[in-house]
Amino acid sequence: MISVVGGGPAGCIAAKYCAREHDTVLFEPQKRDERRVQCSGLLSKSGLQRLGIDPSSGSAKAFIQNSVRGAKVYSSRGSLLMVDGGKDKAYVTDRCAFDNHLLDEALNAGVLFENETVDKKNIGDIRSRSEKLILATGTNYNLHKNLNINAPCEFLYGAQYEMKIECDPEYVEMYLNVPGFFSWIIPVDDYARVGLCSLDNPVPHMDDFIKKLQKGKRVKDPQIRERNYGIIPIYNPRLRTEYHKVCLAGDAAGHVKATTGGGVILGGLAARNAASEGYEKIWRKEIGKELYLHLRVRRFLNNLSEKNTDKLIRLLAENKDLIEKKGDMDMASHLLKGFLGRPAFMAKFILQAPAHLLDQV
Ligand SMILES: Cc1cc2nc3c(=O)[nH]c(=O)nc-3n(C[C@H](O)[C@H](O)[C@H](O)COP(=O)(O)OP(=O)(O)OC[C@H]3O[C@@H](n4cnc5c(N)ncnc54)[C@H](O)[C@@H]3O)c2cc1C
C-alpha cells in the first residue's frame, strides 16, 4: 500500500498515478467544500495539458473562471511590456473546485480517501504499514520535522485580496514594485485577485499597492470580498526529496517557480512519478533544469537596480514578438533558448547588463 499525505494538487495527482499499480490511500483533513486555499489560480493552458487535463472538456467548466491571453508587465518607472500570447494562453481557476476535480480523478482511479490529518501520533503507524509514504502537505512542514527530513527553509510571503477593480478581462497585470517580487491583478469576472509576494511582511506593501490603485481610480468598490495570506517556498535545488520509503512532492518539496511563485503545474508534473523507483532522478530530469532556470532568473532580477529593471523591460518590449512566440509560463528554457538565438537581443542585453550580474545569467 502507498500512503499519500495531503490532498492538494500534488497529493491528488500523486495518488491518481500511484493507484494504477498500487493500493493507494490519500489522507486529507479538509472537507470538499470547505477547502482553504491560498492561490491566484492562474494556470497555463500548456501546463494543464502537460498534466493530462483538457481545459476545453465539460468537466473543466467546474473550475475555469476566466481565460486570459497575455500579460501587461510594468516596471516601477512605468515602462510597459505587453505580451499577447493568443486566445486562452492561461486560465484563471477556482482552486477549491480545481482541487476537488483532481480529487475526483484520484477517487475514480481507485484511491481510498481518509478524511483525516496525519500527525506525530499516527505517522509512525502509517509509515510502517506503507510500502511508500508520499508527503504532499504543501507548506505544512510538521511531518518533515517528525520524520527528521529536511524541508524548504526560504520563503516568499504572499497576500491577496479579491476586489472589484477596473481591468482588462483578457490580461493579467504585473507590477515590478515590490523588492524581491511583484504585485499582480488577475481578472476573474466582475472582480479581480489583487495580490503580491515579498521577502518580508506583505501587508504594508499591499496597503501601498491598494492606495495607488485607489489614486488611479481603479478601485470600483473598496470592499474586500476575501483576504488570503500564504507562504511560498523558494526552490532549493539541493533539497533531497527521496528517502528510504518516503518522498516529497509539490510545495512539500519546494517544486515552485521562483520567478512567479506558481507551484501547481511543476509540482503536479513531479508528483506523477512520486511512486516510481528513482523518483528523485526522474523529476530532476524532467523539470529540475526548468526550476533551476526560474531560480537563476529570479536571482538576476532581484539584483537589478530600478533603473536597470526599467531598461530590461524596455528591451523585452522591443522583442515581445519572441516572447509571444516562444514564451511558456512553466518551461523557462523555451524562451531563454529563443533569446540566445537572437544575436541583436543578446548584444544589447550584454551591453546593458551590469557586468557583475552577467555571471548569474
Ligand atoms: C498568494 C498565493 C498565490 C498563488 N498563486 C498561484 C498561481 O496563480 N498559480 C500557481 O500555480 N501557484 C500559485 N501559488 C502556489 C500554489 O498555491 C502552490 O504551489 C500549490 O498549492 C501547491 O500544491 P500542493 O499540493 O503541493 O500543496 P497544497 O495545495 O498546499 O495542498 C496541501 C494539502 O495537504 C493537506 N495537508 C497539510 N498537512 C497535512 C497533514 N499533516 N495531514 C494530512 N493532510 C495535510 C492540506 O490540507 C492541503 O490540502 C500561489 C500561492 C500563494 C500563497
Give the overall pLDDT as a whole number: 95
* 3D shape: globular
How many strands? Answer: 16
Small molecules held by this entry: flavin-adenine dinucleotide
Summarize the amount of helix as a percent range: 25-40%
Q: Give the CATH superfamily of the largest domain.
A: FAD/NAD(P)-binding domain
Looking at the chains present, what oligomeric state does this protein adopt? single chain
Q: SSE order in H/E notation?
A: EHEEHEEEEHEHEHEEEEHEEEHHHHHHH
> How many strands, what sense, and barrel or not for the largest sheet?
7 strands, mixed
CATH class of the largest domain: Alpha Beta
- Derived from helix and strand composition plus strand pairing, the structural class reads alpha/beta
CATH architectural group of the largest domain: 3-Layer(bba) Sandwich
Explain what the structure shows.
- With 361 residues, the chain is an alpha/beta fold.
- The protein has 3 domains: 2-67 and 92-153 and 235-296, FAD/NAD(P)-binding domain, CATH 3.50.50.60; 155-233, 2-Layer Sandwich (D-Amino Acid Oxidase, Chain A, domain 2); 304-356, no CATH class.
- The protein is built from 13 helices and 16 strands.
- It has helices at residues 9-18, 45-50, 95-108, 123-129, 142-146, 202-215, 264-271, 279-302, 306-318, 320-326, 332-340, 343-352, 355-358; strands spanning 2-5, 24-27, 42-44, 64-68, 70-75, 80-84, 90-93, 112-114, 132-135, 155-165, 171-178, 181-187, 192-198, 219-233, 242-243, 246-248.
- It has a 7-stranded mixed β-sheet. The protein has a 6-stranded mixed β-sheet with strand order 8-2-1-9-16-15, with helices on one face.
- The longest helix is centred in the C-terminal third of the chain and has 24 residues, at 279-302.
- The protein is globular, with a radius of gyration of 21 Å.
- The mean pLDDT is 95.
- The chain binds flavin-adenine dinucleotide.
- The site of flavin-adenine dinucleotide (FAD) has 41 residues, from helix 1, strand 3, strand 10, strand 14 and helix 7.
